[in-house]
Amino acid sequence: MQFHDQPDTCLSIKGGVNLPQDLVALLATLKIPNALLFVGNPDLGKVETALAFARALNCQGEKRNDGLACDQCRSCKKILSSMHPDIICVAPVKERIKISQIREIYGQIKAKPHEAKFRMVLIQGAEAMNPEASNALLKILEEPPERTFFILTTERTDGLLPTILSRCRQVTFSPMDQGKIEQILVRDHGIDTTTAGIAASWSQGSLQKALKFTGIVKSDDTTDWPERRRWMITAISTLIRGANPGVALLLAEKINQNPELLGGTLAILESFFRDMVVFKYNTEKIINSDFQTLLTETDSGISTQRVLSWITELHHVEKKIKANAGIRLTLEAFLFKLIPARQLA
């Protein structure tokens, strides 16, 4: 497997992939479009699905009933271990994909595939292509090399050229039903029902996220998310209930130490705020069901309107940080808004 600029972006995750029916149908006919566009929110398994699709197309063993590859043959093992010469992966560098990356791809695919029946080029975060890179890719898609197909992944289509969109067959990834995720965790992975329920609720419809949360699927992220969730919820509850303002400063600094974990950390905060609202009306619908006692203690005297304002402000925090605002200072300003006024007097 050949990587361009970010060698850890295409590592294959074996568990938790269910091919969309569109792809299953393509496997049956082997009439593969020149380009596929996977569209959907992060953590819905777009990259994992692309790699599973590549394995299924090139599998030399006996495929499973669900259309997936055997994962035991030489070809499958090469893709799983990121050693296949005909699986080429590209990802943004500093949030951009430049023309040099696309040119490097073209240099690799001018010749016939080394050994694959179907060579795959996977471009992650395709909306990050600058205009020059987009135009260079468009030229390749107009005259694709032999036995080569492209998969582009994106969260949204409005960042791609209409001419690129017109040359791609779109596959939409939607969040999975929470009950289905919980069922898979219990039935297929032996997770107890309580943990499965928490993981499914926290996953936001992503089976991959639930599998990582429970530790079933490992990735380069070695974070103990259950422990981080426990720590974050406890700290935020303490802050809301009237902790010393210095706690907000310490918490912001702690979060700032691992900026790569910011997305998941903010998701934990939002899930707790959501629970504070839902808890007033239906305790069975809360996400963090193992924190009911803490929710009872935290919720006392706080209006629904105030909690909803925190959720809105949290979304603003995400936008500010994406626009390159300083993480620590932005979080400090937000966390101070959670402290009761009496503590700031």
From TrEMBL:
Domain DNA polymerase III delta subunit C-terminal: 243-336
Organism in which the protein naturally occurs: Desulforapulum autotrophicum (strain ATCC 43914 / DSM 3382 / VKM B-1955 / HRM2) (Desulfobacterium autotrophicum)
UniProt EC number: 2.7.7.7
Gene Ontology biological process terms, A to Z: DNA-templated DNA replication
Family matches, as Gene3D superfamilies: 1.20.272.10, P-loop containing nucleotide triphosphate hydrolases
The keyword Cytoplasm is assigned to this record: no
Recorded catalytic activity of this chain's protein: DNA(n) + a 2'-deoxyribonucleoside 5'-triphosphate = DNA(n+1) + diphosphate
UniProt enzyme class: transferase
Record bears the keyword Transit peptide: no
PANTHER family referenced in this protein's UniProt entry, alphabetically: DNA POLYMERASE III SUBUNIT DELTA, REPLICATION FACTOR C / DNA POLYMERASE III GAMMA-TAU SUBUNIT
Name the record gives this protein: DNA polymerase III subunit delta'
Origin: domain of life: Bacteria
